[in-house]
From TrEMBL, chain A:
<protein>
    <submittedName>
        <fullName>Acetamidase/formamidase family protein</fullName>
    </submittedName>
</protein>
<dbReference type="Pfam" id="PF03069">
    <property type="entry name" value="FmdA_AmdA"/>
</dbReference>
<dbReference type="InterPro" id="IPR004304">
    <property type="entry name" value="FmdA_AmdA"/>
</dbReference>
Amino acid sequence: MKHFTLPVSPKTVHWGYFSKKVPPALTLRSGDRATIETLTHHANDDYERMIQGDPGAESVFHWTREHKAVARRGSGPTEGPFIRGAGEGIGVHLLTGPVAIEGAEPGDVLEVRILDVRPRPSCSACHAGRCFGSNVSANWGFHYHDLIEEPKPREVVTIFELDTSGEPYAKAVYNYVWTPQTDPDGIVHSTIDYPGVRVDHATIRKRENILSSVKVPARLHFGTMGLAPSEADFVSSIPPSYTGGNIDDWRIGKGARMFYPVAVSGAYFSVGDPHAAQGDSELGGTAIETSLTGDFEFILHKKADLAGTQLEGLDHPMLETDHTWSFYGFTYPNYLAALGADAQTEIANHSSLDRAMRDAFRKLRRFLMIVHGLSEDEAISLMSVGADFGVTQVVDANWGVHGTIRKNIFRCD
Amino acid sequence: MRSVAATDDRVRLAQRLLRSTVIWVDPMSFRPFTSESYAQDDRPEAWRDVLAAVGLQPAGSHSFYDGHATASHRHADGIALTRMAAGAQSVAPLTPSNEDLPIALMPVEDGMVLKSGASHRIVPVGHLVLLPRNGDWSIVFQRDMRAIVLSVTSEALHGRRSGKPRLGEPRVVPPGGFADVFARMLDATARTLDTLSDGEWKTLAQSLVDLLLTLAHQVAASTSDAGSSATQAALLHRICQTIERRLDDPDLVPARVAQAEGISERYLQKLFETVGDNFTHYVRERRLQRAWADLSNPTESHRSISEIAYAYGFGDSAHFSRAFRHRFGLPPREFRQQEAERATTQHGVAGQRGWPQEALARAHQNSAEARSDVARISGEETRSAERRHHHLPVEASRVHWGYFSRSLPPQIEIASGDTITIETLTQHASDDPDLMIAGDAGAESVFGWTADKKNVDRRGAGPMDASVFGRGAGEGFGVHICTGPVAVKDAQPGDVLEVRILDIVPRVSRNPKYAGRVFGSSVAAWWGYHYNEFLGGPKPREIVTIYEIFDDPEEPHARALYSYRWEPQTDPFGVVHTTYDYPGVPVVSATIKRRHAVLDGISIPLRPHFGVIAVAPREVDFVDSVPPSYFGGNLDNWRLGKGATVYLPVSVPGALLSVGDSHATQGDGELSGTAIECSMTGTFEVILHKKADLAGRPFADLSYPLIETETDWVLTGFSHPNYLAEFGAQGQSEVYAKSSLDLAMKDAFRKMRRFLMNTKGLSEDEAIALMSAAVDFGVTQVVDGNWGVHAILSKRLFRDAT
């Protein structure tokens, strides 16, 4: 077993997409471990608190008229002229990786264990050692067309500080309404439509003393974790799908074991979109987006060894914790295959919890029947009385409902 | 030419982005409204905005409406269409107005009274009314307000002159012919507002404008006292329509148009002069306006600029380009690009969603039916200081089966602060009568049913003569055995009833063979979520699983005993039930085949709770017990267990509390259609909060069932928060046809926002940030017609919280 370290830098991140074409940032073997740094793509909402003085973050976010360290952001076009910028922001998450796993082939399952998760402290002089995050009530949020106060519509950024001195919690510092921001290439972003645009704090009005009586319990986790899909070379990081990705389940934190079906040789694992806390549904469009570092262990389960294990027949992500198994239903379980050439844009027109619930039901039924040997009638009765369905997210185009079943149901003789 | 090609690429990319990714949720122009979003005090103002969007305002002295209201609204340039459902009220025109075109209003489901000057006129359902923008009129909706309103302003005409239809006073358009076509199109469009793509909506909106114009002219011209000006206006309108159809004809000259209308060219010009225009200018203006509309329409992006120019009679694209720039200040190519970008940043895109179309057959209710003559009993009462404890045992005369009703005589009256022990029975006890009914006097009384006598005849809110499906009295439109109702002294509409669950104890079998043991039943039924997609045969099928409940304090759990497939059961009256379509039909063990060793090795932790806790709804007399709503009812949330409290808004005097549908355990979703249904006895503390004392309490401004546990606030969202008010007479069938988690999620979001803003004093921005970071939304149930999503707010978030 080896332990690797993968820091963030323009060479070790890819921004806004999963891809089987990006050269691996790290290659390791089944059983190896790695410490992987991740950055939140919302760090520029408060440059001073979340980027300044941090060599890794500064290198990745570097963007001047002359030089943009990570030019492509999203799976969109890389040849101009651009509406929003290279990649067109079709996909927004800063992902570290890919990590290639030696010997991984389509049909295998990759298990990723999260051994530990730590926040990334600020390096700026004024805030050194403290940890910050940003929450955005954005145009893709569930609430956006249903606001009651003026001005309508509006996007609001709330900066949180994460306190880890005791039981970790997050506390709001201030918020502001998004104003049009001009990026170094001269494109004006009147809404939040492209990641990593530095917010000029001279253009915004900070409101202090917000959420003053509220402490949000921390749920450190990675919103986006998954493998490269086989269907396309560059796949938007926004809609989650059969190889994982932007699942946005806060249960994917320390102690979690995620299982993903391998779609391309080498598996190509990437991780990012770190969150300090999120509620089931991620209603406003984002969590408390906070740069984190994780310790991971990778175990490759070869196709031939899956029969008779809990991974038999697994063709979608699964979460195992000490107490539960969770299955992720999506509006489209594999939207890339289901929606054809325009899938990455078309998926946003189909968002539906009703379809996601249907998918979660089917995946859990399959698990109970294949892995636990139940008949269909037993599985359905058990799901009604012993499984809990919840709303994972309603903001990632391919909406999610998770079905969770407790392990202690199966414990007795 | 390179730059042009790049520009075209840009346009195409913009078009594609327009349809792309995360950013787009609903069609930009669609606005759902529900009063649930607003605190009680803010509702009149919010409702005023809804009316104002279509040129109306509240009328009369009781001008503000503050009850439950919903509306779907969609707008395009100068066009606004709204379908509203709200309570009784009056509306009048929003004056002063500079607009000329009348408002079109059509009542649906209920008639209305049109007051104009001194005259009163009753307008029946489906009749169109054209209402002048200024004038002394009002409309009174005496029962519910259910109407479709179309407002078109001059902005929608894009400079199109059509003569001004002058309506002196409101006009009711008799149905038939053209008016029918208009009415049907209005209705169909209003029903699909939320699912139309932007392109579809724009097209329909333009058609509605044309239809309204034509109708308004017809009506104005037909007025008996209309002078020649009305005739002229109608003629001019017809000519304008002719021109509109022939814009593609480069040889559209006055002589040909005049000839087609059978008038002189001079008269034609004179007609245009009456509205301050001339023919040539008008035609050019219309051509440019139509081209403008097409260039800004994303669905027309496949057509080249010269194609569009040609379609509107411009043979020479350079000439078109000059004329366009002269008129709009921008050459057509740049204009199109700018519009595409604007659309991109506005994120307008068609949403998804589609409701199941088929409504269940409507229950024909016989409200004149004689009420069951329930003996009033007062229960056992034990006095301790001022607070009293009551006991309500279960027997045939003390339950109502499958419905809630405001007119049931109370079983008992208690005072605020009293405690009461209520016995409940599961309606699934008849799945194995030997285990769950035999020897139990209370259960035998309730389930008692022989060829001659059925102790509880009505089961469901359907007709007593079973004239819909012939299943039995009440038709099984509602299935739960509810014990009660319990009247609460001094309770009045507007008050809040707090129901604390102090204890829940399973009801043990009274059959000597199984003495002391507890049993339950779970049915994977035809109303289950899985029913239409079985993997294996036979398809479909209903499966009953009988469980034994082990209520040991260490690790309370349930284990399956056996299961069987439902076989047609003949009830004691001789009706055959091929599916589980009527509650309490005793299953004859000889007719079924038991499968043992099911769910072997599996033990399910208990979550004892009551599926149904309700106060009586106000809207109608007999209400199906299945769909939950604002009054509580079949909430099916397992968090309603021991130690939990539910706050219910009182709707009728005495509140009329009923309890039933007890569950040993259930998962979030209740997927198969039922929980482990198990008879239980609950002890409750009931506290009445008078309306005047609600201010500042967490349950002030309550219009839905609010659950409080030791650690959390749980808010209940439904597909249709008050389906009885929203759908009116059709409510009890419509609600089943319009189940949707997407809608329930929206409702849960709105309720949580309101709770955080009003109870916790947060701004809207704070509330949304907090919901995203810390509120958990979960699926309550997908089997009760009115599907549920709950929102859980941990009390831990608030340091100062009590």
